[in-house]
Amino acid sequence: MIRLCLALICFVAAMPGVSLAQTVRIKDLVEVEGVRANDLVGYGLVVGLNGTGDGLRNAPFTEEIMTNILERLGVNVTGEQFRPRNVAAVFVTGRLPPFARAGSQIDVTVSAIGDAKSLLGGTLVMTPLNAADGQIYAVAQGTVIAGGVEAEGDAARVVQGVPTAGVIPAGARVEREVDFDFTQMSTLRLALREPDFTTAARIETAINRTMGRSAALMQDAGTVVVDLSRTGAASPARAVVEIENLGVEPERRARVVVDQRSGTIVMGDDVRISRVAVSQGNLTLRIEESPIAVQPNPFSEGETIVLPRSGAAIDEEPGIGLAEVPGGTTLSEVIGGLNALGVSPRDMIDILKSIKAAGALHAEFLVM
């Protein structure tokens, strides 16, 4: 399968008149300063569980939050002892999107923090969600949709997925808005997700070409500043609309990504290999134990003993000999040279590692 994919890439690269360079929208390459989400977190209680909640002796914080909730509702539980198994203390997390308005709804994730076995069928009681500044920005409540299944018998138990965590779609309502007035922006700072000087320069050129004036200026590899007064847009939001849909061809570093678990190899178009010779073979060591039991004759004195019998052998496959991989100037030539070795994908990973160590692989080598 790996060789088939590499051969397909080689075929596309060799087709005349086909350009592999593709433009990408600026909105997919950058983040706009001020336009970001904010993380929220809260501490609450899930009720209505079918005997799969926290053991209050092992999770005293569950009893504490139950007491606080009941007392806020006017129920006096001072001095009482709780022993229910249908409640669980949880952390509730979510993200407040940029420009979220009061009354809008967001998704939240619920995760047990005690020894609860499952949150299936539970309901989250009203839980305030705080941001990093300590202020409450949303309130969550609703039925938990757990992401796992659990079945248990007298002598066996099976669990699939994670039943101690779940989500509540649109389970939190925004109560406070982030104090940020986008209309007062005089400049826009575009932060590249993958900083690169060439990509930043191309973004600057594309914006200035469209606006017809020097509105954009590249500060560094990760930042392009846009002067809104020179864009001619009616508002900062209109300027963002015009800028984020411009097409730019991003420049990326040459990179080889390897997944050792599946044997997957992915190469970028800019990968180059200098001329190098490679020899590859496998060495197999086998050790076998075949002990023999020796017993005394019938009705005679003696003991049964075990005699060891071992066999050891070393097998070495012929390998590919010393093969030359010519220097590749294009991705198709690199693939052709590596495929000429005629080895499996996992052996190819070891060969690429060795070529990188020899200084002949001119690319960033990432192992997952």
From TrEMBL:
| Keyword Signal among UniProt keywords | yes
Q: Which residues form the signal peptide?
A: 1-21
Q: How would you summarize the oligomeric state and partners of this protein?
A: The basal body constitutes a major portion of the flagellar organelle and consists of four rings (L,P,S, and M) mounted on a central rod.
Q: Which gene encodes it?
A: flgI
This chain's function reads:
Assembles around the rod to form the L-ring and probably protects the motor/basal body from shearing forces during rotation.
UniProt cross-references to NCBIfam families, sorted A to Z? PRK05303.1
Does this UniProt record's set of keywords contain Chaperone? no
List the InterPro entries.
Flag_FlgI
Q: Which residues form a coiled coil?
A: none
Record's keyword terms, sorted: Bacterial flagellum, Cell projection, Cilium, Flagellum, Periplasm, Signal
Q: State its location(s).
A: Bacterial flagellum basal body
What name does the UniProt record give this protein? Flagellar P-ring protein
The entry's family comment says: Belongs to the FlgI family.
